[in-house]
UniProtKB/TrEMBL annotation:
Protein name stated in the entry: Uncharacterized protein
Organism from which the protein derives: Streptomyces buecherae
Keyword terms: Plasmid
Length: 69
């Protein structure tokens, strides 16, 4: 009997059965091959951009405060 694709997720690297997370990513229990969920890179990039903007705003505020004292 053939398995249908998607119903039985397997590791890309070693073909061991894997359990995918809610967002579609998994870490293989056999070889530790890591697959990140779709959109993960994009979300991480957004998060980094947000953190950088926050840090820059804080730096600018501190600089402005020093100039006024
Ligand atoms: Zn594997």
């Amino acid at each position: 009997m053939m398995h249908s694709m998607g119903a039985d997720p397997r590791c890309d690297a070693c073909q061991a059965p894997v359990v995918t997370g809610p967002e579609g990513g998994y870490v293989c229990g056999q070889c530790w091959h890591l697959v990140e969920p779709p959109g993960y890179e994009e979300q991480r990039a957004k998060g980094l951009a947000r953190a950088r903007a926050k840090r820059e705003a804080r730096t600018a505020a501190r600089r402005a405060a020093q100039q006024h004292s």
